[in-house]
Design brief:
- The chain has a six-stranded parallel β-sheet, sandwiched between helices.
- It has two domains: about 220 residues, no CATH class; about 170 residues, Rossmann fold.
- Helix 1 packs across helix 15.
- The chain is about 40% helix and about 15% strand.
Length: about 425
């Protein structure tokens, strides 16, 4: 579940197309019926233990957290399992790490993996790997030196706080290059790769940027009339789409979305012409507070239906205040739907201002509303749709991304 899981599954699928590669995905718990995904937690008891590890780490962090809004935005990684002796790990020529938190791998677990001496590729889906525990540092740049005094996330920041201790434990792994196996760090965006290069932990490691792959044969344009008819959405309205696995997560920026809609309603001559579509786990009470009629579709796993939802929308909105390279933007663009997003993280690498969508001033609900209005009522819809689709074909298609990862794997002598 979530963006990192989806991205790693997509990469797994394209790697399996290569006749000389055998790839398996080892996960904490399996949610999908795929033979190439192997869960560590297979029995009922294993799943309970995995849940206990998750809860144990969250309870540990609770005594340090600044407030409950940041509860899942910081991972101390003091709880996890040792997978270094797992048969798939032992058989592997190359270990490719993705997102490993929430009770799956602890820092000690990572240390044991690295001690095997096998070449490691680590695709970063957020900043956690090189910080003192936060998944996104925001405006904080402590990770460039030594974490500590963690104002955004800890209740009692100090030079020797939890972030300093977590950072030091990571430094014990990465501080001595002579003890490390061959490692290639991959950021899903240039923005994230550049942050990793500036970090004290990763400053001596090889770092590149490779985007997540997308199946352009699934995420493709469908006429709005056809898509809306299949989804039972109104044909004669301007539809604004918002999507997130959990829309209330603090860095998804839902409050900015709410405010931008309020501003938009004041600016348009016929507010009844606009309706909202929300994809993901949303709050019914929050939805009722939104100024336009809302179609809450809930969490959907059928990718073909998700592609239809993108095609049905006139604009995709992503008001995130912290992001890497969101799958949702490339999915929307592949379906010919332009996006509005803040100028933060890897989003400017995807949205070309007024070419494939609209880049709004960071944390400006006013400018975000202006972007929605521009796409709905002023822009050349056909040109935007064509440009968006072309951007995805040239940069994020499975064929393009696969070749770049094959180059990384082949750089190791295995």
């Amino acid at each position: 579940m979530g963006g990192a899981a989806i991205a790693s599954l997509r990469l797994l699928s394209v790697l399996e197309e290569e006749h000389d590669i055998e790839a398996k995905l080892l996960v904490q718990e399996k949610k999908r019926n795929r033979a190439d995904v192997i869960p560590v937690a297979q029995s009922w008891l294993d799943k309970k233990r995995a849940f206990i590890r998750f809860v144990t780490e969250r309870l540990y962090f609770r005594q340090y957290e600044k407030n409950k809004e940041v509860r899942f935005a910081f991972s101390p990684a003091n709880t996890g399992i040792d997978i270094s002796q797992h048969p798939l790990v032992q058989e592997a020529d190359i270990l490719h790490l993705h997102w490993v938190n929430f009770g799956f791998l602890s820092i000690n677990s990572l240390k044991k993996l690295f001690s095997l001496g096998k070449p490691i590729v680590w695709t970063l889906h957020d900043m956690w790997a090189f910080t003192g525990g936060c998944h996104h540092s925001g405006d904080c740049e402590n990770y460039q030196g030594h974490c500590g005094n963690c104002l955004p996330y800890l209740r009692n920041p100090s030079p020797d706080d939890l972030s300093a201790k977590v950072w030091q434990r990571k430094h014990e792994i990465f501080g001595d290059m002579t003890q490390l196996p061959p490692i290639q760090i991959v950021g899903c965006s240039e923005w994230l790769a550049n942050r990793a290069r500036k970090s004290n932990l990763f400053k001596n490691l090889s770092i590149s940027a490779i985007p997540n792959p997308l199946d352009i044969n699934v995420f493709k344009p469908t006429t709005k009339a056809e898509a809306r008819a299949k989804l039972n959405l109104p044909i004669d309205k301007k539809l604004i789409l918002f999507a997130a696995a959990k829309v209330t997560v603090i860095w998804k920026g839902f409050s900015y979305f709410q405010e931008s809609l309020r501003i938009l309603k004041e600016q348009v001559s016929n507010p009844d012409e606009i309706e909202l579509v929300i994809l993901g786990e949303s709050d019914a009470e929050l939805n009722q507070m939104l100024p336009f009629k809302t179609h809450a579709l809930g969490r959907i796993s059928d990718v073909e239906k998700i592609a239809l939802i993108y095609s049905a929308a006139d604009v995709f909105t992503i008001p995130s205040i912290q992001e890497n390279l969101p799958n949702t933007i490339m999915e929307a663009m592949a379906c010919g739907t332009p996006a509005v997003g803040f100028e933060v993280g890897g989003i400017p690498e995807m949205i070309e201002h007024q070419q494939t969508g609209y880049l709004a001033t960071y944390k400006s609900a006013e400018n975000f509303a202006e972007g929605i209005k521009w796409i709905l009522f002023e822009a050349d819809a056909k040109a935007l749709a064509n440009n968006a689709r072309k951007k995805v074909l040239e940069n994020y298609s499975q064929a393009v991304v696969k070749e770049r990862y094959l180059g990384v794997y082949r750089s190791f002598s295995v």
